[in-house]
Amino acid sequence: MKNKEKIKPFKKEKIFLSHSYFKYPLPAMLLKELSTELKDINLYPSGGGYSQLCQVLAEHVGVNRENILPTNGSDEVIEIVTRAYQGEVLIPIPTFFQYEVSADRSGLPKVLVNCLHNREYNINYSAKQLKKTSLIWICNPNNPTGTGIPREKIIDILQRTKGMVVVDECNYEYLEETMVDLIDKYDNLVISRSFSKNFGLAGLRLGFAISNPQNIRRLAAFGQYFRVNRMAEKAAEKVLKYLDYYQKAWEKIKKTRDKFVRQINELGFFAYDSKANFVLVEFRDKEECKKIWKHLKERGVYALPGWENEFSGLGDQFIRFTIGEDWEMDRVVEALSDYVKRCRRGDLNPHRHTPTTP
Ligand SMILES: Cc1ncc(COP(=O)(O)O)c(C=O)c1O
Predict the structure, then answer these.
(1) Looking at domain 15-24+243-352, what is its CATH homologous superfamily?
(2) Ligand 1 mean position to 167 CA, how many Å?
């Protein structure tokens, strides 16, 4: 359906760039359509099979409905996969913290492998690690570095292990590269997707797993009968009719993101190139980072620092910024540029900031 609605920004005083979610309003027509479903919330969702929802999701990604397991957000994929394939868990850090949290909840041994060297995030597992493991996480693009993981690298891992390889594609809409076409070729591949990040349904909780029918049946046994609520079930069908609205928004966010990366680097800090809706910035050290974080907060900008426990293995010299609207990112750049000027003038410990070369 062609949607003529313009993408209008919300206007707010404070700027919240901590959580990575869709920061534009949902199409007004979509909200209207959804509100007509409220009168039926006395009814249960479709339950067990969720066959209509599976069909919609399957058509969206180009697989069969037997390849789909709808879940209560993609966090639930992380939880049930961890419970279904128990054993040693390989986690490439720095990355999203829920892989570790779910492993801990199940009391599983974890192997955290540092993949960030010289400002490059590269997943490199040894043959021994791949032989021993039951479950391997690959976040693509990786949260928080925003790095896209090359397809050949994932295929290499799939071929060298008998463990279950889970590719978290919750930011697929920005990367536009997927492993979905390989679910029949590799029986140790599960893919996870989300409606939170890029469709604006974080509050409704809708995600899904994609794999071969045998894996999907196994995973389903670890979830509840009514995993997905009725409004989320209805929202999936409706939201996908507005793809052109979302595509315009994603393009806009990508432009804002790439401009933000350039501006941050011009100021002498180090912003990682990102294939997601957030950007990771590295400061000189923890001390500088803490000062900058405080400086931003005093100017109403809230972003996610490394010490907040949202990531496994991220140092205290990092802050992750979700990409908001242009005016929001301009405010961040203004605040950082003011910080740099004040350092140069000597108001703020001048010896701590000198432009760095990446
Ligand atoms: C990499 C990654 N995977 C999964 C999730 C979970 O998202 P949701 O449960 O909202 O689908 C998040 C949320 O922050 C994330 O960053």
Answers:
(1) Aspartate Aminotransferase, domain 1 (3.90.1150.10)
(2) 12
